[in-house]
Design goal:
With about 130 residues, this protein is an alpha/beta fold. It has 5 helices and 5 strands, in the order βαβαβααβαβ.
């Protein structure tokens, strides 16, 4: 955890439902997470799951915001992305250093939705 006077380092990870297999992209995911105090992700199989595994291996706390598929149907993913962006924005307003890492596949509609919402919320980051 941060020392008094240092900003909390929050990393939001969004990505494909396919696990990263490319060593360069996997190294980027680990680089984005390394040094964080908290990792936020959507709990989906694939990149989100890998982010959680990496965070756990580095002894970094995770906050998972699952999509409520049974209750919300097709709106669940976009609603979850909105909640992730809002949580990140709250941390940022509280003085945290918020950064996102996006790891889309060519057909990652949900990942790009989340990236747009994070950017609109003032959270900086990159896609890999």
């Amino acid at each position: 955890m941060p020392h008094e006077g240092n900003a909390l380092k929050v990393r939001v990870i969004t990505g494909s439902r396919e696990r990263l297999r490319d060593p360069k992209r996997l190294a980027e995911l680990e680089r984005v997470i390394t040094g964080a105090d908290l990792v936020l992700h959507g709990g989906a199989p694939g990149v989100d799951e890998q982010a959680g595994e990496i965070a756990f291996s580095l002894s970094i706390h995770c906050m998972v915001v699952q999509a409520l598929w049974r209750r919300r149907g097709r709106k669940a993913g976009p609603e979850r992305n909105t909640v992730l962006a809002e949580i990140a924005a709250v941390f940022k307003r509280g003085g945290a250093e918020g950064v996102f890492g996006g790891f889309p596949a060519s057909d990652s509609v949900g990942t790009w939705d989340c990236v747009r919402k994070l950017t609109a919320a003032g959270i900086e980051g990159d896609t890999y």
